[in-house]
Amino acid sequence: MANHLVFVILDSCRYDSFARANAPNMARVGVLERRWSYASWTAPAHYAFLMGMMPHTSPPGVFASEVYKQEFTQWVERLDSPNLSFQSFVPELSLPKVLQSLGYYCVARVSLPVLNSFTLLNRHFDDYRLMENHNDFAGMIEDIEFEDGQPCFYFLNLGETHYPYMLPRESLPHISGVHGVYKALASGQNAQEDGEFFDSEQMRALHQQQVRCVEYLDPLMGRLFARCPDNTHFIITADHGELFGEEGYFGHGPIMHEKVFEVPFIEGRAPR
After folding, report:
1. H helices within 80-121, ranges in order?
2. Residue-level pLDDT at 161
């Protein structure tokens, strides 16, 4: 049987936050790499993932088209499916569609509202759900099951590493989430409710809290690994990074800065 695939995205987790964290369970999967996202915010980065494109290594002296082709051919080893090729992905360029054609049961659990089940991301999944709680990786793990004789694909978007990084509202100046931003745009108001920008001390504290969120997730990763069969290939990465005061920015999205595109990447199997 082909390998099971579990694809975990730590939303907004920048590379150095992950590198600073004590995360021994995730280290069991493979060597941490510094890679680059194709996008600076959640939705387009996830569209790239579901095309079959991983964060890239930005190699010099190559034709870009060859890099794409080599990326698609890596799915042969990941899935232990020798018949796969770049042609397997065209014309739809959809990873879940390719997996369904190989007999996979495809499940997605997402934490961010911009990834909700009404978006195009939901195409070709057998089971796709936006979690009620922004920080519920533990609940996702409880949903994971494997059927005898059928390979499974689990696509998991984790909100714990996204602002507000599991912090209670009263502990920091508050920026509205996606629905609050929409309301602010409609009213002409600023999405930041108290009108004050974070100071440098708050920026450092927020960055350190993102590191703690990675460390919070790591024992849960151990629980996830324990639920998965031996022939499970894991991909752990982030959709984009985050700015914590660099050049006067906080957050991600309409910002051109290397820390927004710099992400961690680990793949392999988790030895028991």
Report:
1. 86-89, 95-101
2. 97
Residue 168, token pair as written in the block: 């209670």
CA distance 57 to 33: 9
187: CB partners within 8 A, 6+ apart: none
Which of 60-69, 168-177, 189-198, 206-215 comes out lowest in average pLDDT? 189-198
- Judged against a pLDDT cut of 90, whether residue 71 lies above it is answered with no
Query: Strand (E) positions, 62-144?
Result: 105-110, 127-130
Place of tokens 């999967």: 29
In order of start, what are the domains of the chain with their CATH numbers? 4-165+198-268 (3.40.720.10)
Q: What phi and psi values does residue 14 have, to the nearest 5 degrees?
A: -80, 160
Task: Determine which helix (DSSP H) or strand (DSSP E) holds 233, and give its type and residue range.
Answer: strand 232-237
Collapsed DSSP state (helix, strand, coil) of residue 70: helix
CA dihedral 155, 161, 163, 165 (to 10 degrees): 140
Residue in this structure with the two tokens 């054609």, named with its chain if needed: 101
Give the pTM: 0.89
Rounded Cα distance between 183 and 189, Å, is 8
Please say whether the beta carbons of 11 and 24 come within 8 A.
no
Strands 232-237 and 262-268: antiparallel
Output 112 or 193, whichever has higher pLDDT. Answer: 112
pLDDT level of residue 180 (50, 70, 90 thresholds): very low
Q: How many residues does the chain have?
A: 272
